Amino acid sequence: MEIFGVPLPAMLSQLLLGLVNGSFYAMLSLGLAVIFGLLNVINFSHGALYMMGAFLAWMGMAYFGLNYWVMLVLAPLVVGAFGIVIEKTMLRWLYKLDHLYGLLLTFGITLLLEGVFRSFYGVSGQRFEVPEALAGATDLGFMMLPNYRAWVVLASLAVCLGTWFVIEKTKLGAYLRAGTENPKLVEAFGINVPLMVTLTYGFGVALAGFAGVLAAPVIQVQPLMGQNLIIVVFAVVVIGGMGSIIGSILTGLGLGVIEGLTKVFYPEFSSTVVFLVMVIVLLIRPAGLFGKEK
What we know:
Layout: E1 2-3, E2 6-7, H1 8-39, H2 46-64, H3 68-89, H4 99-121, E3 137-139, E4 144-146, H5 147-169, H6 171-181, H7 183-187, H8 193-215, H9 227-240, H10 245-265, H11 273-284
Antiparallel strand pairs: 1-2, 3-4
């Protein structure tokens, strides 16, 4: 069976592979949306922190003999702790200033991190083996789906939906939203708003570190691995609506699928289709698909 001249198995294969890429987009854009939506900071260092998570996972394996599952927990915690240091020492002084200052600061952090890792490891890339428990592939009839890629999709969906639930449906999430809109009122109820803001930033960048660990066995670990990806992720956040949690998740997954289909019908256009979608969405709805019009 063919659809527009393309065999159905080939199309379904690209849809699944697009969903894998979309899972990374969703995870990274979620972290950006959490940080911008709750802290009003455009975190351009997100791609570098994603790279840092991947490198920490590789270093834990290469230098200390730690396995993938340990580093899947440990690396995001280290990246989150690093983010907390950034927030407490630098970012918190910029909250009342224009967004541009936070963007410039985080861009500088990006260049610093990439430069440090490049000086130690070069740009050739480090190989990270797929964990033994997730090796091999499953026959779906129309394609062989690598087990690890299926795990990436499931893990990303679980973390994304869990984050959305906590922020949108729990008392903690209500405190977070209220603390960014009216911190003095929330502090009157005995809640430590500065600490809450710091932990929120740490959690947001920990999501980038988690995505980096997930990506490590899929692509080679190298200092510039987050450079191109972060541009696409920013486009995802803009399309979904700046600060929209559910918008980032759904848009990330959807654009991954669209990108996968584009590779079937017009491969040369697959690297730019995301930006075409962004232009169209902004012309029709400037606040993004799920953003709130001011």
